[in-house]
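Supplementary Methods S3. Complex input for the NDP-bound model.
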Amino acid sequence: SLPLAGKVALVTGGSRGIGAAIARRLGADGADVVLTYARAADQAQAVAAQIQAGGRRALALAADSADPQAVIAAVERTVAEFGRIDIVVNNAGVFAYGPFEEETAENYERVMAIHVRAPFVAAQAASRHLPRGGRIITIGSCLGERVGAPGMALYSLSKAAVVGLSKGLAQDLGKRGITVNTVQPGPIDTDMNPADGEAADHQRAGLPLGEFGKAEDIAAAVAYLAGPGAAFVTGTQLSVDGGFSA
Ligand code: NDP
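Predicted complex, serialized as structure tokens:
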């Protein structure tokens, strides 16, 4: 039988890029999947339809991760629709880049709300429902490990913060048999970071493997952490970054 048969997963930001690949992969591994989005309703519905075509239940929900009530509502809706929640994947994210001196308080609040507060409140809401064997997985970044260039202090701060969050939650939830981990992608070819974008050659130059990864590479790491083989893995970071942080 499939490794995630009978499980229910919530993936934030599942309409495009890495989140869409994670949602599809968890569905292929046997889970029913709820995926959220902020704007790309059509793409989110298409991902849900693909998962349904594979025989699983799937639901696309509009839920802006900048709004903590929307995040909590997505968790509660998952339980209401599919009867349980086993796996939470905090993936929704936005890139932030530019001169440190020009960064605004508004953008600080927004990036921290999406990358840090949303995973915190999702974990708190889900923890009321997660059974033994539950999983919380947050998508951080290789930039939470090593920044390597200017203009990314805010983004890196937010991605480093989730490492502390996962470690703390691993402590809080371990006695209940729930694991909490961070996946730290390197350059992955998505709308956020296209392999033919302006900054792509600079990133390739810093990569031992020399090329961008694919969204499916991150989905494979999430599938591992979500699956039974990772039962004894908690409070840690899994770098899937082509060697960027090495
Ligand atoms: P994309 O920009 O390609 O996709 C972002 C996804 O997040 C979309 O589904 C988008 O929804 C959703 N999203 C964005 N903002 C919100 C919000 N406020 N509320 C709900 N959903 C939201 O990004 P990637 O797939 O590349 O990135 C996914 C994650 O991986 C992010 O956390 C990112 O920081 C991280 N990451 C990416 C790397 C890369 O090189 N690509 C490297 C390291 C980390 P919608 O379609 O509705 O806008």
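Residues 8-240 form a domain with the Rossmann fold fold (CATH 3.40.50.720). The pocket of NDP is lined by residues 12-19, 36-40, 43, 64-66, 91-94, 114, 139, 141, 185, 187-188, 190-193 (CB under 6 Å).
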